[in-house]
Amino acid sequence: MKHAAALALALLACAHAPAAKEARAASLEVQDAVHGVRYALPAASETWQVTREGTARSPSGVETEISSFPLPRPGTPQQCREYARARLSGKNAAPADTGGASAEAPREQASSDAPVVAWSFTSGAASAPVRNRWAFFTRDADCLVLYVTGPKGDAFADQTFDTAARSFQVLPLPPERQRDVDLLAGMGFLERREPASALERFEALTHREPDNAKAHFGALMAGFELGQEAYARALPHGKLALRSERDLTPEQRHLALRAVGVMQLAENQVREAADTLAELVVRAPDLAEAQYNYACALARLGDAQAAMDHLRTALRLDGELAAHARQDEDLKSLRGSAAFEQLTTPAK
């Protein structure tokens, strides 16, 4: 179903109920196992139809749907509403990933907090306006949204929203499903360049599951994205992630070794950095950055010959690193040597 004003797909994940079902001229209980909610719909004059996508539609055109989106940390339904309003209010065109469902900004907006936190607004063409009724609920750091849409002024749509919102139950998710939700939430924040929010979500999962290597990896990458002020906080996650050979892909392990090595150098854990980067250059010998950072660690440890060897390899792979090497404080012990000057001086 494409309702009149959906949040961007990156914000909302539509329900996928396990099977289609019908109920004839009677109230209907809808249970969404994906989002972990249950609610009731009023009796319709004909059959309510619930699709395998989890949407319900009456013959009169009233539709319901459940979606969800993450917050960085546990929040309130009011915070969920404000986040949703900020994403939609004032928009003059639909976001690219909503399929064009919202062609205009919400109008005739109204909010209420009793008996549930709700937001309603009109959208669609003036000749056939649609009234959107949204109710907001939370499960820890996730917002759950009940949508009811129908023609403006439709009394049955109002009844449907009232019945569904009053009966709405947020159910606990199975641990494996909650784990997937937290991992997806953290990765979503990373993709949207919100590393602080990503770090909050990944760390919440690591507190529940201290041996979850993927959660530790996510926290590491969020801290790396935040920069040096977060290195001390993120480094323990990196070390825990690297303990697992099974749970990280080869690419993820490369990324983790790179991030941990850089952080250790920045935090003056030079011996540990050398050990980390030694593994990285073995696993990825053609990665110029790995060879360069390993040279930095070796230079700081006083192993000038090995440092020059790896610096030479790094510059062979990426000659543009030479200019950086001439200014890099990690390599200051090599400056002045004939080999270093010859290697890093541009050819005339």
Q: Would you write up a description of this structure?
A:
It is elongated and about 90 Å long. It is built from 12 helices and 11 strands. An 8-stranded antiparallel sheet has the order 1-4-5-6-10-9-8-7. It is 45% helix and 18% strand. Strand 5 and strand 6 form a beta hairpin. It folds into 2 domains: 21-172, Mog1/PsbP, alpha/beta/alpha sandwich (Protein Transport Mog1p, Chain A), CATH 3.40.1000.10; 176-344, Alpha Horseshoe (Serine Threonine Protein Phosphatase 5, Tetratricopeptide repeat), CATH 1.25.40.
Kindly summarize this structure in a few lines.
By secondary structure, the protein is of the alpha+beta class. 45% of the residues lie in helices and 18% in strands.
